[in-house]
Specification:
The structure is a single chain. The chain is of the alpha/beta class. It contains 15 helices and 18 strands. Strands 6-14-7-8-10-9 form a six-stranded parallel beta sheet. Strands 3-2-1-4-18 form a five-stranded parallel beta sheet, with helices on both faces. Helix 9 packs parallel to helix 11. The protein is elongated and about 70 Å long. The two termini are about 25 Å apart.
Length: about 475
């Protein structure tokens, strides 16, 4: 049985929530004195949201103790399992999390699944406050015929496969086809396309898993289409990821200049990041490359392309019905202005042959426990500034709070705000004032349920001699 714990060594719409009335900090001592008691706080999830929340709490309360619970054996969430292996600079944020973990007021417990091994109510009984920061563990389904065929995967699962996420290690995608189609035009879509087309000799210098590297060495994928429902102005990827694709060794871009007609005039008033992105797309699609670049593209054995104004309608099966053979796309046009722009079908369709379909149309959170309110339509926990609706002492941060949007710095700001709100409530006396047992109670519960030797088996990471 896997150890139940890793004790970490260094390494819009919910207006019915009534916010606590303002009280002065002078009343704080009547409720919860920092000089007399240690606030026991639990964070569920060890990705960026969890760690940034813990960081804020530890920094701004000199006696607070924070326990972080994680369903995986190891910490860091999407930083570990969601960032492309050829982007090590993004993972540098782990250094910040390591500093948080060095505190002697912080503990990490892995392989503990909240909602299964222990309930949220049991955590609330053991701690003065609980913060849910477990992220978005699921993907948005396509909801089209043929989605269940072999050869169709979510981009989330594919990313987990090449990064070694335990639940995706056995994914075994068949890369024997010539053409792959990625549905969605965000950064994750470009990450997946880049990994599919990057020469394996380059990938072996990264921390990609050996199993994935071996499969990619045998891959026959030569062409990757990245498909979006709307047009160039609405792409969700950033200029860094686009530039990497354009400069990817051994590949050439395939962009239809017709898709960019009239775009030059429309981007003049765009914000600078969007304008720069569009200008790079325009140059790549419409300008004749220089001699050196033209020679590089001519010698490329692989290619990638962006297909705009196409919406997935059906995954087409092979004649024997055993796997994917193509995808039927509805041709779309745009209606509306600005943020309200939406793609509507024109009535025309086209079939695109392929042997691999990867859906990258978004992540979504799951409900964690029946006692926690959850909005299935928005895929978030109803909250006001991080306070969970109608559940005093329960908070949330990160994607499960606001939805799967933004980058790591967005999550940092969001999590700091939740931490700030929690500490305000603590000082104002809105959280339990008596002592709470914290992890001791949870260890006892898990032990009584036979979920590990002594409830939580201690696994030392060997990165220092003092615990956190």
């Amino acid at each position: 049985m896997a150890p139940r714990c890793w004790r970490w060594w260094p390494w819009s719409s919910w207006t019915r929530t009534r916010l606590p009335p303002s009280r002065s900090i002078q009343n704080f001592g009547q409720h919860f004195s920092t000089q007399e008691q240690t606030p026991q706080i639990c964070v569920v999830g060890s990705g960026p949201a969890g760690f940034y929340t813990a960081q804020h709490l530890l920094k701004h309360h000199s006696r607070a103790h924070v326990d972080i619970y994680e369903k995986q054996l190891v910490p860091f969430g999407l930083v570990r399992f969601g960032v492309a292996p050829d982007h090590p600079e993004v993972k540098n944020v782990i250094n910040t999390f390591t500093q948080t973990a060095r505190s002697d007021r912080c503990a990490f417990y892995g392989n503990v699944e909240v909602g299964r091994d222990v309930t949220v109510q049991e955590l609330r009984d053991a701690y003065h406050a609980v913060v849910l920061s477990y992220g978005a563990e699921d993907h948005q389904a396509l909801d089209i015929p043929g989605e269940e065929l072999p050869g169709v995967f979510s981009a989330r699962a594919f990313v987990g496969w090449y990064n070694g996420l335990p639940e995706n290690r056995e994914l075994a995608p068949d890369l024997s086809c010539d053409t792959a189609v990625i549905l969605g035009q965000g950064n994750v879509a470009l990450d997946v396309a880049r990994i599919l087309l990057t020469p394996p000799d380059h990938l072996e210098k990264t921390d990609i898993t050996e199993a994935a590297l071996g499969a990619l060495r045998q891959s026959r994928v030569k062409t990757v289409w990245i498909v979006g429902r709307r047009g160039p102005l609405q792409v969700a990827f950033t200029i860094k990821e686009l530039r990497e694709m354009i400069q990817l060794p051994g590949t050439r871009p395939m962009l239809d200049p017709v898709d960019f007609l009239g775009l030059q005039d429309r981007i003049k008033e765009a914000a600078r990041p969007r304008k720069r992105l569009m200008e790079l797309l325009l140059r790549t699609a419409t300008e004749k490359p220089g001699v050196e670049e033209a020679a590089r593209r001519a010698s490329a054995s692989r290619a990638w392309g962006l297909r705009f104004f196409r919406s997935p309608q059906q995954v087409l099966p092979s004649p024997d019905g055993w796997r994917v053979a193509g995808i039927r796309l509805a041709v779309t046009r745009l209606e509306g202005i600005g943020e309200a722009t939406r793609a509507v079908p024109t009535g025309d369709v086209e079939d695109l042959p392929c042997g691999l379909v990867l859906s990258s149309v978004g992540y979504k959170s799951r409900p964690i426990d029946p006692s926690v309110p959850f909005d299935p339509k928005l895929g978030v926990i109803p909250n006001m500034e991080g306070r969970v609706v109608d559940v005093p002492g329960l908070y949330c941060s990160g994607w499960v709070k606001r939805g799967p949007t933004g980058v790591i710095t967005t999550t940092m700001t969001d999590s700091f705000l939740t931490g700030q709100i929690l500490l305000q409530d603590l000082r104002a006396g809105y959280l339990p004032s008596g002592p709470r047992p914290g992890s001791a109670a949870i260890k006892a519960l898990l032990d009584s349920r036979g979920l590990g030797p002594m409830g939580l088996a201690r696994v030392f990471l060997g990165l220092g001699e003092t615990g956190c």
